[in-house]
Fold this sequence. Notes:
About 45% of the residues lie in helices and about 10% in strands. It has helices spanning about 1-15, 15-25, 30-55, 55-60, 65-95, 105-135, 140-145, 150-160, 160-180, 190-210, 230-235, 240-250, 260-270, 320-325, 335-340, 355-365, 390-395, 415-420, 450-465, 495-520, 575-585, 640-665, and strands spanning about 285-290, 305-310, 345-350, 400-405, 425, 470-475, 530-535, 550-560, 565-570, 585-590, 605-610, 615-620, 625, 630-635. A hairpin with a 4-residue loop joins strand 13 (about 625) and strand 14.
Amino acid sequence: MTQTSTANSSRATTSSPLQKLILAQRQNIYVRLALIALLCLLPFLVARVALYLFYFEHFRNLNLQQVAMAFWVGLRFDLSVITFSMFLPSIFLLLPFRWAQHPIWQRLWCWIIYLGLLLLVVLLIGDAVYFGEVGRHVGSEISTVRADLAPMLTLALHQYSGLLALFAAFSVLGAWVWHRVVHPVVPVIKHRSLRLIGLLLVLALCVVSGRGGWTNKPISVSDAFFSNSSAQAYLTLNGAFAVSHALADNTPPVHDFMPQQEAIARTQKSLAGQHPVFQDPAYPLYRQLNMAANASAGTSAKPPNVVVLVLESWGAQHIDAIRAHLELPPIGATPHFDALAKQGRLYTRFFANGQRSIVAAQSILASLPTLPGMLFLGEGIEQNRQSFMGEMAQAQNYQTIFLQSDHRVSFRFNSISARAGFATYLGAEDMPELHPKPKPDLVWGTWDHNTLQQANRLFAQAQQTQQPFLGYIFTSTTHAPFMVPEQRWRKYPETSELNKFLNSMYYADWAIAEMMASAKQAGYYDNTIFIITGDHVSGVGDYKQHVPNLYHIPLLIVGPGITPGVDDRIGSHVDILPTIAELAHWSTGYAGIGRSLLDPERVEERVALSVRGEVIDLISNRGWISHNLNRTVGNSADLPDTVKSELEQLLLAHYQSISHLMLENRIQPAAKH
């Protein structure tokens, strides 16, 4: 007996650290769960290395530091999806009851974790194969995959039989390792209360890990875009996370109303104008803009700066400069904007492409509307190659600056701005307080004056360099609950929500005037193109259910080369990006459904495509029509049947073309290395 004990003691003292860890986890459930989590991380590490090596052409421009950062940040995504996979089994393993400590019960849930891990590995492999086809991880197109699951599985069995055999072999090998490592020997429970405390602590840890850390919002695909390198974001993401989140979004499949080539032809025809060069059939919305050739001899040596100012909830209905053209009496809420409108070009029939701020961001930053069934920016659509405003500006050697009046993480603009090519990003936390009292904590962000003056400081600094700058500003004071920082801006008695909104608009109008004065004083005003618009209409207007009024917003362009006056052509958010390219004389590739608002051709045939929920509205000079992808649900009065049919076909062609091209990642070709 003594010899046996001595031998066991000798083996224990000579055991390797790994053996000691394995022995410890057999006695301690918490060590076991930690070891299981580490084992689950291993396939994710292998998958990320394989993605980097097999598709090196996608990542060759990343330096070593960027690759290391992608692997490091990628752990958040790996741990998040692993945590959700292990969550329920972990609870059952930690139940503070004697029967829950039985070896059979413990082994059962350990093996369920292993089966869940195999499912995650299947997702990693499938996504890696898909990455080779479209150059990104799986997104909302998963809905179309589900519709054709049976034939796709049959295809996989034939086309990837070798890969499946390799997966089966490694699954068996993994099961053997799992059995050797995760083999619990359950101790007698002594303190059930300690077991309960341990369960609660593990639950708290799972919540933090599953959310991707101690953050305000759960981790999302958009958080992978923490820099302006899409390649780094793709390396950061893992396929299991991308697929599971796409499945959770439950986007419906795309409806087909005509052959895709017909849909594309109709869409291209509607976009054709002064610069209608569609060069690549594989990317039918992609055009090469050679606006530099249009620069006049008098253009200054330094290209113009561009500032895009997006005003929260500014609808055309409350702006006197536009009300005058609608033959409506003045309100008096926007005196400074009205005066500025006389110095620039005012578009009186300009429309938002949706009814939400995040939809406006997609339309302005990437010149594409957010159609029914399509993910929003911040939900994964940034995986696609698109013509992002900041990236286009950087290609023209512009400095890029993004500010929003709300908090940094609001709308995930901290990630979206980086993906869109903006090198500098500030939120409400970064704005010095210029008023006697800050906004209450529970109210959206900071006052507009704080944001616009901080923007002026950044623009003034950028002006000192040889590079032009692109600034993008999103305000928030005119968002409900409507309030102003001081009594002097309460022009209207606050007896209604409308009057409260008008007061907030009156204040925001003053803040814009202060910014313009600061820009003149700083010396960059004369060489800066200001593009001022709203993100959507306010919720306090009387729209009489006239569909165009649901989207009617201002657009004012002021700056060098702008002919002052009123322009009544139809336009929308998606037209801003190609307009900037023409005004700033950019020579660059562009893919979207916008047309420059300076294009003199086919002005009467311009349309605006807008979305409200599951309904798409098309607004034209001949009338408007609404469609819910099943049938027409509304149209303007006295619209002839022939015109109604033409507008319906154009609406459906736009929807079908954009939806399929987004699913196939064929909006814009990959950048040439």
